[in-house]
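Next comes a concrete protein, fold included:
___
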Amino acid sequence: MKRTQSHQKADTPSVGTVSGSDQSRPQWRPQRRSLKSFQAEFDFSLEAICTRMLERHRDTIRTQKPQVAVAKLMRIIQTTLTLANRKGFHSMSLRDLAAESGLSMGALYTYFDTKDTLLMMILGEVSSAVSEALGSPPGHLADDPAKRLHWLLETHVYLTEVMQPWFVFAYMEAKAFPKEGREKATRSELSTEKMIADALADGTDRGLFSIANVELTASLIKPLLQDWYVKRSKYRRRGISPEQYVQAVSEFVGTAIQSRSVPKAPRRRRSDQRSEIAAAEPF
């Protein structure tokens, strides 16, 4: 899914200066981009995700008619996420899934051979969604780490809003995953932190941010993003919209990392910086 020209230039934050005695101090000024505009850029509906899932697993899914396959995949995935939320994926049996979805055991085996295969199919779509939505910031953000950081925070919130059951599943079930699933979930965490850390390091190198430990700061930001989808009901009760949450998190982070000095030209980064997460894969 490609971004349109207009969406590439959507509202983003800026780092400017303030008048008076603080004239030389960079100021974080995030602007708003709506959830609706994000949804116009990317289609992460259940139908779209299951369509891509079918394409990725065409060699193993034994159904010839794409429309039939996508419709049944939607029932399987929706039921799996619902049951996992109710009783836990580890406790869910394939017989539970068959009974709840209205499909026979034979029909289920047309799409996957084991419950672990189903798990990895779901985690694979979460991985692909993160890579697609967060992995390639618009080109005009390359030289503006403040705008890029805001874009990452904003995009993460909006992505997890439209795919909330998927992300809750990956977060809540991680401890019960088999080794392959746990490793994939860990790579997910580290790769998202790396994207944030890259923007933080770039801003620090340019003198826009004042951060003593880039990796630690990135790891502290990540729970703010996770709180949106893990505790979504709390914010719903308070009437907090995704746009309001983006603004609050951006302003909170911006205030915490804002430099008090004049921005400087980029300097060469230390080779050992971000070593812990440099090898992580996108998820």
Strands lie at 14-17, 26-29. Confidence is low (pLDDT under 50) at residues 1-27, 270-283. The domain at 123-260 is CATH 1.10.357.10 (Tetracycline Repressor; domain 2). The longest strand covers residues 14-17.
